[in-house]
Structure formats: C-alpha cells, structure tokens
Design brief:
Three copies of one chain form a homotrimer. Chain A is mainly alpha-helical and about 210 residues long. Chain A is built from nine helices and no strands. The radius of gyration of chain A is 17 Å and the shape is globular.
C-alpha cells in the first residue's frame, strides 16, 4: 500500500495544479484565490465521498500531508507556470492517471465501509470528478463533465469493472491495475478520436416545473 | 408504511425525470450529464438533510432501490420525451405531490432524530427543494425558489402545520394527509392565480460588504 | 463564555442581515428568497465546518436561538432597509468583527475535536467565509473572496496567530483578543489602503484539461 499512498498524495498535488491553472484561466485571482480553488479541486471529491458515507475523520483532516501536497502543487503551478503551459499532453496524462487512481480508491473505500456495489461505483466516480465540478461552479463554468468528451463515464466504467472483478474474487492488485488501465484507455481513446456519448435530446423544452 | 415507501421511490423517480428534462432545457448534455443531473435533483435534498442531521447511512446509500428509481426515471424521460412535453399539467401535479411527500417525510425524519420543531420544518423544506436548488446551480440557472410562484413557502407552511398538529397529538396518518394536502393546495392555488410573496425591497444597493 | 455566546448569536444575526442585503442587490427576490439567502449566509460556514469535522448535532440544529437570530436579522434588514444603506461603514465594521469572531471560534472548535493545527486554521477560515461563498454561488456572483481586498487571508492570518500563541500556552482569553484584533486590523488596513495580495499570473491559458 505504500506505493499507492505515494500515488494518492501525488494525485492530490496534481489536482491542485490543475485547479490552480483552471482558476487562472478566466479571471485574475490573487494567490489566495488560486490556492483556495486548487485546494477545493484537490479535496472536493474525496471530502464529498467521505461526508456522504459518514466516514470520519475525512481524508485531509486525518492526514495532513494532503494539505501540504496541495500547497506544494499550487506553488509549483506558479513557479513553473510558463513551462506547464507547454506541457499540456503531460498534464492531460497526469489528470487521466489521477482520475483513474481516485476512482478505484474511492470505490474500494466505499466497499470497505459496507456500501453496496451501486453506491460504491457512484462514490468512486464522485471521488474522481466532484472536485472539478465544485471548481467549475466556483469559477462560473458549466461543469465540464456535462459537455466534454467521455470523462466521468470512463470513471464509472472502471468502477463497474473493478466491482465485477471483485465479485469474481480477482486479486486486489491485479484488479487495481486492470480497472485503472481501462479508465486511462477509455479516456485517451475518447480524446484522441474525439468520442462522446450520444446526446440526450436536442429539442429545447419550456416547462412550468 | 408500505404505501408510503412506494410513494417515496416513485417521488424519487419523478424528481429524476424533472431533473433530466431541466438538464436538457439549456444545453445539449450527453446521456451521462442528463442522468447525473437527474440523480442530483432526485437525491440532493434528502442527502443534504441526512448529512446535516448526521443520519448515516444516508437514504440512497441505505436503500439501493432509490438509485434504480432514478435510472428508471431518466430512461423514461428519454424514451417518452415528446409525450412528456405535452403532459406539462401532469408533470406539474407529480412535482407538487413529490414536494408535499418529501416535505412531510423530511420533517418526520428530523423529528425522529430528536431535532426541535424549528429545525424539523427547515429539514422538511430542504428535503423537498434543495435537490432542485443544486440542479439549478449545476445548470447555471438562478435557483427557481428565489423568483417563482410560492414554492418552498408552501413546503414550509405544510411542515409547520404538521408540527402544530403533531404537538396536539393528531394521529400520524391524518396529519400526513392534512399537511400534505395543504402543501398541494397552496402550490396549485399559487400557480393558478399567479400568486407570489411580497417582494423584499426593490431599490438596488451597492455595499462595500 | 457567556459574553462570547452573545457575540456568536449577534454575529449570526449580522451575517443574516448582510446576506439579505446582498440577495436584494441583484434581483428582486421575495421575502422567502431573501430569508433563505440570509439563512444560508449566516449558517453556511459553521454548517460546513461541523459537517466536515463530523461534529453532530451541527451548530444551529443544537441551538435553535441561531435560527431566531437569523429571522430577526432578516426582519431588521427589511424594516431598516433605507437606514442600513447609509450605514455602510457600520456594516463593514460589523462584518469585520463577525469574521474575526467566527474564525477564532471555528479554529477552537476544530482543535477541541482533535484536529491538527493545519486543519484547524482551514476550518476557522471556512467558518468565517464559506457562508458568503455559498451565498455568492446562489446569487450568481463570482465569490468575493477571489477578487476582493484581503478578506479570507486576514482570517487565515488570525487563525495561524491563534494557533501559534496556543502552542506557546498563551492564555485563551488573551489569545482570543490578540488574534481577533489582528484579523480586524488587517482587514481594515486592506480596505483603507486598498491592499490586495499579488496576482497569481496574468496570462490567460487554454488547456485541454
């Protein structure tokens, strides 16, 4: 589990970098605002999962290293700002690895707390994407998960695969790598070939409800 | 309680339908986005109530049928999309029955957990309306409860009546139907006669706070 | 602690007044909408802190006087609306006293629940500013803490001072007044001399993440 813990801290730092860069995109917030949004992006998903599951203390209250990882990520985002701009493909890869990791970790945590598989899949996806949703709300963006190439759906697919393999007693580590790889693969294919889910319905509707 | 449980599951499905239709109104989200917003609309109010009261496991983690009701509602919303457009009055009635039911259920749950009547009334109203508020935030709408004909106020009035009758030991079932009917009646009258609460103050103000 | 309790109730009422005035600034909500936003502004920060810490019952569920303080604040905001418009400096002072008080109270509460100092500082700041952030989201404003003169940063500085003095066993009451005064002083200086934190980075960036 030691390697995985390192991954989780690094994943948190990376989400903070991605949040800090996103915060800077629209307005010109000060250092505090950027750090704040980086923080919310990084811990939003895990906090929501833990609060919905009633799992206390929640992740960053229990382990202060997550807070330092976020502060470190924000500082890095500022110092290497220009360089990071040029590394979009690297950033994309990190983000993809991050959501894959957080999905599996969130799914496992929900299972270990006695949640059913349906709930565990939702909690896994929430862990990965809800930090970004809250960030988008704070910065007045339409949450990307509603209009972007397959994103949260990739997480959900990975979580469902994990739960299926778990049901058939596939060993945990093999399952971790298989399900995580599926998320990464789906996400890369979606961006590469510009895939998206079918639209719901196009016609607009005005309702009194 | 069996009939009421059926009502609750149906009410959840209906809120999911209403959320899915609302999600489709503004942008053209994909299937995932619509299901996601339907889900949040349906479980947002009850989840917030349970988290604020510290009542774990929260409603849809405890009972997975609520998740299936939401998925079913979203599929129905897509398959019968055109038909549902023409059924606005029916939809309005279902929504009204839904908020009435959720208000009373939420008020009762808060009371049963030892909350005072003031808190119970607020929790009842939250159960009914906060899913819609979160949906409006996610889809970038000004939450309807701020500008629409009497909506949350009807829930609050019903909750207060329930608490008053409860205080005078009116039997639970009679109380349930009486208070629920008051919510439905107020809401129907408000829409029918275009009633709204008095405005607060009209002058705009710029403040440094 | 009796004086402090009185302060907390008054601080809550004041946040409700500030929320009610803010709600009225942009649109023309009805009485319900204004009370609702006043309520969220006043209890949002403390509720989020208590939920994140798993401290149940949360503050306004435990003590119903906070609910009455909010209702009183909203009524006052309406009755003395024109007068309050002219009292901007007084309102600013009250707001500043409010965030100072809530920061220290929130920091102390987190510490008393066993949180580490890093978490306690964040919880103290959340108590003071998150009600306003939620209010801004509901009323479709970019949260002020991202673009305004030093605001949340003043809270964070005060919380960190409190934690430092606490570490060196400075007596609680002295610490309370010293740390609170620092928040008030920083905030007044920031507005008076129009100070703000350095911007993060100005160049805009379009990223695929």
């Amino acid at each position: 589990m030691k390697v995985q813990y390192l991954f989780e801290v690094l994943g948190t730092a990376f989400f903070a970098i991605s949040g800090a860069l996103a915060a800077n995109r629209k307005s010109t917030p000060d250092w505090f605002g950027v750090t704040f949004i980086g923080f919310i992006t990084a811990i939003g998903g895990g906090s929501l999962r833990d609060v919905l599951l009633g799992c206390y203390p929640i992740v960053w209250v229990k382990d202060v290293y997550f807070i330092y990882a976020i502060l470190g990520g924000t500082v890095l985002a500022s110092v290497f700002y220009t360089t990071l701009q040029k590394l979009r493909k690297t950033l994309f890869l990190f983000d993809t690895l991050g959501i894959a990791l957080f999905t599996i970790v969130g799914t496992e945590k929900a299972l270990s707390l006695g949640a059913g598989p349906e709930t565990a899949a939702i909690m896994g996806m929430f862990s990965a994407v809800m930090g970004g949703v809250i960030r988008d709300i704070l910065t007045h963006e339409i949450p990307i998960i509603f209009h972007k190439e397959i994103y949260a759906t990739a997480c959900l697919a990975g979580a469902l695969l994990y739960l299926t393999l778990h049901y058939f007693h596939v060993s945990r580590n093999l399952n971790f790598w298989l399900s995580g790889s599926v998320i990464v693969t789906i996400r890369i294919m979606a961006v590469r070939y510009n895939l998206s889910l079918p639209k719901f319905r196009k016609e607009s509707v005005t309702s009194t409800i």
